Amino acid sequence: MKQKEIIDEITMKRAITRITYEIIERNKEMDQLVLVGIKTRGVFLAQRIQERLKQLEGLSIPLGEMDTKPFRDDRQADVDTTEINVDITDKDIILVDDVLYTGRTIRAAIDGLVKLGRPARVQLAVLVDRGHRELPIRADYIGKNIPTAKEEEIIVQMNECDGSDSILIASEL
Ligand SMILES: O=P(O)(O)OC[C@H]1O[C@H](OP(=O)(O)OP(=O)(O)O)[C@H](O)[C@@H]1O
Ligand SMILES: O=c1cc[nH]c(=O)[nH]1
Q: Measured in angstroms, how far is the CA atom of residue 22 from the centroid of ligand 2?
């Protein structure tokens, strides 16, 4: 497998900052927002957006962690490690994930969310949209659009779990 860095730490940081500004611009009632990070790296991304919102607007936005494994259509797990300790009914949810590919993870996340309550609105923020959707799902906030071949893989590395911030593309060639 050949790997090449396509996004470095600084560019990744800028993309997260831009997503945060877009969230501020497009959500007038910020007190209704709840960030929900999709495990694993979506949670760290959501935490970074939460920190930026605090720095830029002085806002403390609640954050939950979504485990999509129990709701997947391909493989399933009995244990659900979702932790969302706020009532999501009538709230504006922003789902956060690192990569958007087929859209199946997001479908599972929405399934998990509606089991917990009835949000007013659900938006989606992703660091990378690599295309190849298999469901009618799109992101509202996109850090980087990275056109890929199906055989390639996007690897997002984050300091919190990988020791550094970087986005790589991997291919057999
Ligand atoms: O749009 P999709 O085709 O569903 O792909 C996107 C998902 O794939 C990856 O998760 P993965 O299942 O690799 O789990 P991980 O984040 O825990 O590594 C990524 O973090 C997204 O959640
Ligand atoms: O390329 C991909 C596809 C799904 N999830 C990833 O993290 N990378």
A: 24
Tokens for 158, please give them: 């984050």
**For 148, phi and psi rounded to 5 degrees?**
-135, 160
The structural domains of the chain, with segments of one domain joined by +, span 2-171
* CATH code for the structural domain at 2-171: 3.40.50.2020
Which atom of ligand 2 lies nearest, measured to the CA of 148?
Answer: 1
Report yes or no for ipTM above 0.90. Answer: yes
CB 124 within 8 A of CB 139: yes
CA distance 157 to 98: 9
Query: How many Cβ atoms sit within 10 Å of the Cβ of residue 24?
Result: 16
| pTM of the shown model | 0.96
Ligand with smallest separation from the Cα of 156:
2
